[in-house]
Amino acid sequence: MSPVKEPPPILPDIENELKNYLLCPENLPIHRYERNQEFWPRKPNPKELLYFEGSPLCTALKVQRDPNTGEIIEFREVPIQGAGATAKNSMTLNRAPLPPTETTRGSASYVPFWPGSFPNPVLDSPKDNLSESELLTVPPGFRRGLIFSEDGFTLCDSKNMKEKQFVDDTKNVINLLDIVQQEQDLLGVWENKNRNEEERSIMVQSESLPEEEEILPRESPVLKISAVPPQNALRGSEWAILLDTTKPVTNFKERIPEMAIKFPFELDTFQKLAILQLEQHNHVFVAAHTSAGKTVVADYAIALSQRHMTRTIYTSPIKALSNQKYRDFKTAFKDVGLITGDFQINQTASCLIMTTEILRTMLYCGSDITRDLEYVIFDEASPVHYINDRERGHVWEQVLIMLPAHVCVVLLSATVPNTVEFADWLGRTHQRKVYVVTTFKRPVPLQHYLYTGKGGGSRDNRFKILDADKWLMSG
């Protein structure tokens, strides 16, 4: 039987046509030259190989003047730190500034500034000069390396190396005969120690008779002033310093004679302690009850940054709270801005109010606002309601980790049960002390009423059932 033959193709094979078109240029028609590849011979210019972009200046001239007369004494050439550093190749604060259009938000192509929670790269840089004990003699993958004699120039051969190695090995050999000769002395020392311990135990037993142990009380009597057990006092940790709010601050006006903002009322003790730490540029964690006056600490941080000609960022968990704080701060401070996903108002202001997600994006995109940033205020900084949130908790944690070292963190919350534990984590992350200020009672007590009105004459019937201290049986 003859093999089955396939019918001829109706259309030509596209793959074969492409091969013939690309691999056989001689088959191209000479009359349709406009569809063919055009080529113009290029004139060689060797001078273009000599072009080189100028490197940035690494030094600058510094003027030294007479402190009394101001006369110029001399000029000194000093090195420039971060020469040639830009937002795309450096994480230092000395890099070149961004264009005005990208100052606030930054760009995804830029690298962030060096976080304060990361180790300092200058301290971890390799040493310039190493000692002889730190030098390596065996390259990776080699069995042995080059060993020089004591003069440092003569190369030792393999025989000398083996003899030297044998001498070094004999130093660690233990002579058993010496141990046998010293065996009696060692046993005598041990026997004397055991005898001394037995004699001491006999003396102690003879001094304390069993009759005296039964008569004398084991615990010294203590007068019980109150039957109510005292509350367990909170203790600080290595990085969390718990400030005592029970004692009044007597020298507050002496330590801060001119406050950044004056309040029309007398400050509470926890507010004074927090303001003192803000003046010293320390991390502050204010865990106070609702309506205790935590906003006073935020107001003072904003006013203090405006006095220092720096910036402050006020973060809140939701947009509605950001809009509310913008209206409140706008009446007290003039230079206030708002940045959310919906509105951008006065982005160059010294006080910016935004959500935590916006701040995280700015930190990752290398925003230039971070250079002048002095305080970052976290409102409602509750790890229970925010950090433990699976959807948004990591955002809050990333912001605390990515903040540079020169930024001071101010935490405001009313629902944090473990203030010292959380402050200790923040302090260990940034290697800085965190000062915790807490309140023990609510300044404005809550009162519970029972409403029994149904309309008419009983529509105003209210009975107090819970006072500020206890339940009322009369209610």
UniProtKB/TrEMBL annotation:
It catalyses: ATP + H2O = ADP + phosphate + H(+). The keyword GTP-binding does not apply. This is Helicase ATP-binding domain-containing protein. The keyword Oxidoreductase does not apply. Residues 275-434 form the Helicase ATP-binding domain. GO terms for molecular function: ATP binding; hydrolase activity; nucleic acid binding; RNA helicase activity. GO terms for biological process: nuclear-transcribed mRNA catabolic process, 3'-5' exonucleolytic nonsense-mediated decay.
